[in-house]
Amino acid sequence: MAEVEVATAASPTGKVRQIGDTILEVEDITLSFGGLVAVNDVSFNVREHEIFSIIGPNGAGKSSMLNVINGVYHPQKGQITFNGKTRKHMKAHHSAAEGIARTFQNIALFKGMTVLDNVMTGRNKMMKSNFLTQALYWGKGRNEEITHRRKVEDVIDFLQIQAIRKTPVGRLPYGLQKRVELARALAAEPKLLLLDEPMAGMNVEEKEDMCRFVLDINDEFGTTIILIEHDMGVVMDLSDRVVVLNYGVKIADGTPYDVCNNQAVIDAYLGVTE
Amino acid sequence: MSGILDTFPKILLDNASRLANSPAIREKDYGIWQSWTWSEAAVEIRKFACGLAAKGFKRGDTLAIAGDNRPKLYWAMTAAQCIGGIPVPMYQDAIAEEFAHVIENADASFAVVEDQEQIDKLLEIKDRCQVLTEMIYEDPRGMMHYYQPFIHSYEAIQELGEKFDQENPGFFMEEVNKSNGSDTAILLYTSGTTGTSKGVVHTFDNVIITARNGVEREGLTSTDEALAYLPMGWVGDNLFSYAQAYVAGYCVNCPESGETVINDMREIGPTYYFAPPPVYENILTQVKIRMEDASWISQKIFDYFMDVAKKVGTDILDKQPVSFLDRFLYKMGDLFLYGPLKNVLGLSRIRLAYTAGEAIGPDLFLFFRSLGINIKQLYGQTESMVFVCIQPNGEVYPDTVGTPAKDVEVKITEEGEVLYRSPGVFHSYYKEPEKTKEAKTEDGWVYTGDAGYFLENGHLKIIDRVKDVGKMNDDTMFPPKYIENKLKFFPYIKEAVAFGHQRDYVTAFVCIDMQAVGNWAERRNMAYSGYTNLAAQKPVAKLILECIEKVNQDLSEDPQLSNTQIKRFLLLHKELDADDGELTRTRKVRRNFIDEKYPALINALYDGSEKIKVEAQVKFEDGRVDTIEADLKILEAKRIKQLEN
After folding, report:
1. Alpha carbon separation from B75 to A264, B40, B85, B481 (Å, rounded)
2. Is the pLDDT of residue A7 over 80?
């Protein structure tokens, strides 16, 4: 009998879901703040079910790029096609409605609220009943709360945070707060998940856990993931493809292997002597 | 259906009609308690049993089970028993190697496990364990990568079962009725602290009669609630969360995960509870820590009412006469402190709590009893299906394990070893007739390996393992662990080693508890530079001396042990450490090693010298080696004269 094959980070072929067609097309994006060009004429595409990383030295424009994708920043030039819809300007809540969720580089949770309530906010945009029925926990509002709670519990179970369900977020250690933030993003059942340095500031064990979760999310839900990360080991292990930015300019893209052997990338990271 | 309820499947079907709508089992899942009534559980079990049969599981086959406490795993146990199979629950945190031993030894052809983690372990040993042909998992998470034809989901087996049941409508009841009380119910593996683990075979009669006796003695009913959180492979869980639940019809609650037990316990509020001493200790520590952070006024209220509880709480629990004023104060305490405290701990509804496994400190024991929690010690083994002795209500003494349970006979050999005979005595060790003979006599007496004796009030007192009990020169029995435990109950003493075998009097090494004594010293503004320095200070010696004299006082009250009072002792210059080989990894003292390592110190305890110089090598965790030099003072403790009878 064949040995069991567990999909490991190093073998993307172990994936259950095959990588599909392009889901996100970024074309000629230029974003500048006054005279400062943060992103300069960058194009790339992300395919369905893929884990796609954006890397680059500090100030390369990675977070700006994410902010463009989910509509926080509006680029001066270029267009983005997500899920077949092309658009130039978009508000953040539109992107959320389209199925894009994200986590932040600096944790952005409601510190005084419990983990459960924080994760519930991830489903806010799907709640249709009016304020009164929600407040009274009655009729449609009640039914809706029950369905959404069920989904949220799935996520809580998935990320193994049952034990802290009722704990106020402010009392949790940093690593767990990051996980709660991921839970909130997942609760929105996104098609595309943007993770902005999910492993920053974590110890080795927490990083390993987070890697496992990223892979599991990709596997179980088929979520397409765009990842910004500084830990090259993590990037090389997790990613199907990588794009490298430097001073707002794309200098390479391709498989992790191609990218780390690319001379331009090595120069950007290590510097070149004239 | 035959009239006698002598197997679990028969009891299940009876409960399913008698208690059709009472909850049989609950599991916290998705943040809510999901429950199944007895009739619903019976349906689930029937489906799974037929599914097993459809997959080729036959009468006499064994079914390995591994995972956290889950309803589906308990159902798998009954399902196997329904069709004449034998469940073998395993310790879920055992490594693959240990699984292999059990599966091979038990010839388990099927395994039902909780999740991916357990399936991975089984796959690791699959090649070695050719007997194992089918694997079933309960939790589908992460299982989508597994395409092997021999791995099935629990639901798939149940679906097969439903079909099989429709095609063979008479099969299930026929199989259930084929079994009777003398058939094997379960195979439980001993933890294997002494050599490789052995499979203990229990018949339905062994388990059910023992469970019934326990239920009768404590008056358990179908309205009780228990929490299933201890490993399923352990005999106690099988009795408290399975056998007794079936017999009494009470509901078993499975927590969401190991980390949520405390929260889940509070939500359920069990009425019947078991925990080994460390769990109780943990609860008490939590309470103490949280009280230290509490406001001044809360602390005052806590201290005042805890004193009231200490004074009269146990008497009230044991229904002894207590003055009206004290009764009133205790009532007030209940209102302000004991009630809310028990609520926070999830102990509000406890009617009966057991502890066993190792000695429990008297302070710890009395803390819970004084709050009105009826916690009692019991004594038992895997081989006896737990119950040998239980403390009767109203006769609870911290250092005995109570009187023999119903239908249990206990006797003591000349060497002091405890023997028992009971309906719960195991059938045999699986495939080990030799070892069975060693442990069990022809007429059913079982050797426990424990040394003990009966007190005048008929209570059994267990003191040590027989092989560790020594003899002093005047023929007094010398149980080192019993004395060491008494010392270790003091928070200031971390470890102790008692000597006395073939000696005229008893002596001891004592290791202070760095944290407790350190705190104590800081409160007295004593300066110290480290463990060795702290242990060498005079006030510390005096503190420990007081502890030792209290132990001597205690020992003097027992005529059999009065002579084992500690005469001389010293405070070791270093902590006993597993890294230095002085303790086992489970923190048990390695006596032979200590005898070899410290002959000079032991001599000094007996040759009358007042101090001794030591130079010791210490291995640090990073591998560095250093030497410590110290002068150890040898101290004399007062011994209390034995009371003349």
Report:
1. 62, 11, 13, 41
2. no
Residue B621 lies in a domain: yes
How many DSSP H helices and E strands does chain B contain? 24, 28
Per CB distance under 8 Å, which residues of A are interface residues toward B?
Answer: 1-7, 14, 16, 116, 149-150, 153-154, 156-158, 160, 162-163, 165-166, 216, 219-220
**pLDDT digits 0-9 by tens, B464-498:** 888 889 889 988 889 999 999 899 888 899 999 99
Q: Where are the beta strands (DSSP E) in chain A?
A: 22-33, 36-47, 51-55, 77-82, 85-87, 100-103, 192-196, 224-228, 241-246, 249-254
pLDDT digits (tens, 9 = 90+) for A58-88: 888 899 999 999 888 889 988 889 888 887 7
**For the segment B65-117, what is each residue's pLDDT rounded down to a tens digit?**
999 999 999 999 999 999 999 999 999 988 898 899 999 999 999 999 999 99
| B404 in the same domain as B545 | no
Structure token pair of residue A183: 């839970």
Whether residue B67 is contained in a domain is answered as yes
Closest Cα in chain A, distance from residue B151 (Å): 11
Q: Tell me, what's the ipTM?
A: 0.74
Phi/psi region, residue A170 (left: phi>0; alpha: psi -120 to 50; beta: rest), is alpha
Query: How far is residue A150 CA from its own chain's centroid?
Result: 23
Question: Domain of B601?
Answer: 470-636
A14–B31 CB contact, under 8 Å: no
Residues of B in contact with A6 (CB under 8 A): 120, 145
- Chain A: closest CA distance from residue B553 (Å): 46
Residues B298-317: tens digit of each pLDDT: 999 999 999 999 899 988 88
Contacts of B129 in chain A (CB under 8 A): none
- How distant is the Cα of B306 from the closest Cα of chain A, in angstroms? 29
**B217: amino acid identity, one letter:** R
- Mark yes or no for CB contact B263/A220 under 8 Å: no
B286 touching chain A per CB within 8 A: no
Question: What pLDDT, in 10s, does the model give residues B548-597?
Answer: 999 999 898 888 888 899 999 999 988 888 878 888 776 778 888 899 98
Is B324 within 8 Å of chain A by CB?
Answer: no
Interface test with B, best of A116, A157, A215, A217 (most B CBs within 10 A): A157
B123 and A4 in contact by Cβ < 8 A? yes
Other CB atoms within a 10 A radius of the CB of residue B434 amount to 8
Cβ of B31 within 8 Å of Cβ of A7? The answer is no
Choose among B69, B12, B70: nearest CA to B41.
Answer: B12
Alpha helices in A21-114 (DSSP H): 62-69, 92-98
Say yes or no: B429 and B490 in one domain. no
What is the per-residue pLDDT across A142-198, written as a single tens digit (0 to 9) for each? 888 888 999 999 999 999 999 999 999 998 988 899 999 999 999 999 999 999 999
Q: What residues of A are in contact with residue B259 (Cβ under 8 Å)?
A: 162-163
Among A3, A150, A216, select the one facing B30 at the smallest CB separation: A150
Q: Do B452 and B499 share a domain, yes or no?
A: no
Same domain flag for B418 and B499: no
pLDDT of residue A3: 42
Q: Which CATH architecture has domain A17-99+190-274?
A: 3-Layer(aba) Sandwich (3.40)
